[in-house]
Design a protein that fits this description.
It is built from 8 helices and 14 strands. The protein has about 290 residues and is an alpha+beta fold. It folds into 2 domains: about 170 residues, no CATH class; about 110 residues, no CATH class. β13 and β14 form a beta hairpin. It is elongated and about 65 Å long. The N terminus is likely disordered.
């Protein structure tokens, strides 16, 4: 199945400098495999759904939904719905017809000077899983949304109703956070052993001097609700040394290192957000790529 770990540097052109909300999606019946005719039908279906349920004028339809359904006023115009495939280097395709998708929606609301563009990114499974899906199903377990005005909720409902699927928020577990921290820490250590990879691994922008940032929630305290721990790359290399010398997990070594230097026992707190020079990810499923 697709995972957060698989969103590597190849994905960045579609994500950089944006904040997305993460969702998980069950297999979709009759979705994907977009030849030009099927893509146009799917785009038209989504256009009609959004126009009707958001009370928008659809430029592909002769009458605005307010006239057709007796509503008092049209909110604006739905100017574009476009489904495009994304090319992400080294993204493994379980089936050739399952390709990463970008659903782009542009709406011009009344009284607004400029139109708003909304993006829904759909990432296919990267492993076949235990059960072999029939050809009629498409597996896009990871969905990223950058939308406003309820557009994302309507797109999600459309996916569920038209393709017999389920779409729900993706909450990031502590286990996933620990896996990401371990992958980043050891990947950074291995790459720093090769001098020509240093600049590519750690961008030179001023706010990226820290290699790892961990945010923990603090329960039952009004004065302090969260504690953030920033670990520079030099300190992270020392932590890797602790890991390899004592056969500790990455998080155990980080907790030990922080306690030894600050006397803060963060192991009893809940990790709610992690940050690297590449991206920030929070437990409520928000992803911000730098």
């Amino acid at each position: 199945m697709a995972s957060i770990e698989a969103l590597d540097a190849g994905s960045l052109p579609y994500l950089v400098n944006k904040t997305y909300k993460l969702y998980r999606c069950s297999p979709l019946f009759g979705f994907g495999g977009f030849d030009p005719r099927r893509r146009r039908r799917t785009e038209a279906s989504l256009r009609r759904y959004l126009a009707i349920h958001m009370n928008l004028h659809n430029s592909d339809e002769p009458d605005p939904p307010a006239q057709a359904f007796g509503r008092s006023q049209v909110r604006g115009e739905l100017t574009k719905v476009e489904i495009q495939t994304m090319t992400i280097p080294e993204w493994p395709l379980v089936r050739p017809q399952w390709k990463p998708l970008d659903i782009s929606i542009t709406i011009q609301l009344k009284g607004k000077p400029t139109p708003n563009t909304h993006n829904v990114l759909m990432f296919p499974a990267i492993t076949p899983g235990k059960a072999q899906l029939p050809d009629e199903f498409a597996c896009y377990p990871l969905v990223l949304m950058k939308t406003t005005h309820g557009v994302g909720e309507f797109v999600g409902t459309w996916l569920c109703k038209c393709f017999d699927s389920y779409l729900g928020p993706l909450h990031i577990s502590n286990k996933t956070f620990e896996t990401l921290v371990e992958a980043w820490t050891h990947g950074l250590y291995d790459s720093l052993e090769t001098a020509d990879l240093v600049e590519a691994t750690i961008p030179s922008r001023p706010y990226n001097y820290q290699s790892l940032e961990l945010t923990y929630s603090v329960p039952n305290l009004e004065e302090i609700t969260a504690i953030s721990v920033s670990i520079r790359k030099e300190e992270l290399m020392k932590i890797v040394g602790i890991i390899r010398a004592n056969r500790m997990t990455t998080m155990q070594a980080i907790h030990h290192y922080v306690f030894r230097n600050t006397r803060l026992n963060i192991s009893s707190l809940v990790l709610t957000r992690i940050g690297t020079p590449v991206a920030y990810l929070s437990t409520d499923g928000k992803l911000k790529v730098n």
